[in-house]
Description:
Blueprint: H1 4-14, H2 17-25, H3 49-53, E1 82-89, E2 95-104, E3 110-119, E4 123-126, E5 132-136, E6 139-152, E7 155-169, E8 172-185, E9 193-202, E10 221-229, E11 240-251, E12 254-268, E13 272-281, E14 287-298, E15 301-309, E16 317-324
Antiparallel strand pairs: 1-2, 1-16, 2-3, 3-6, 4-5, 6-7, 7-8, 8-9, 9-10, 10-11, 11-12, 12-13, 13-14, 14-15, 15-16
Helix pairs in contact: 1-2
Amino acid sequence: MSLRPVRAAGVLQTATCATLTLLALVGPDSASAQDFESEAAFLTVPMGARVVGMGRAAVSIRGELQGMRWNPGTLGSVESLEPLASHYSGPLDFKFNYLAVAIPAGSVGTFAVAADVQSFGEISLSGAPGVSLGTITPNNLVLSLTYGRELVARFAFGVTAKWIRSELSGELTGDTFAFDAGLLWKPLEQVPLDLGASILNLGPGLSVEGEGGEASPLPGRLRLGASYDVLGQLAPEGRFNLLLAIDLEHAVRDLGTGSQFLGAELGVAGALFLRGGYIAETLIETNTGTTLGIGLSLGRLQLDLARELGVNQLGDETHLSIAAKL
């Protein structure tokens, strides 16, 4: 069975982050003009409704388990047992689920395990007009182990090891591994400013058995960001807070090429959170769009809902997350 007609006729027409997953897995020679489209792009799919609602600006959000995907250093200030579940149902029967749990270990630091499960439904393959090549049911699985710790006051680091498996069909499967590392720094004790930096998806390429050809490179990324609580000093009693965040993301293989993410979160009495953001994506596809989100803190339970508008060419995305502090 040849997938080359599908690359030109099907996958390249949609040209979204999720469908680039398929394109990347059948070999880098299927990439279009932009070289980054040959990467295993499924590793960049955003998950976590809080950070999605804030325009994916997550690298400097302290103590946020959802931000661990962008900066494992954020795990260092998580001090309670925290399970997290995030879900996103995309177009064309795409489904993405992310499960994680943070496990504090006292002065040793904090550990977390996570599973990222992606499925794309049943996709029909066709060659020449009227010729069916059957169907495939692509899916991806990423299992990760993260460790984070505050080294000294206001300075934390974290590392993540990931095992990655992708399957186009029973005969077309492949696996590899990758690493993330990140830092989080609060420069001044009395100033509500956090700075973050991370390097993501460092590892060998992904080869799919049965297809041959070169391995698809992993989407290595360098992220730098800052967040500042505008009302942190004006309203110290915590009735209101206004968190502003910005992330700059660059491709490790070409540091001159990057994307920008802006986000804001207004908190009311620590119970209601209103979020918004702006995304200027250039690495996987050149898209700009906005995000909206809302969060509710119900005792130890946190519910988050977010929607991306205009970012995905196939349609707007809705993300749902639920977390608890035990």
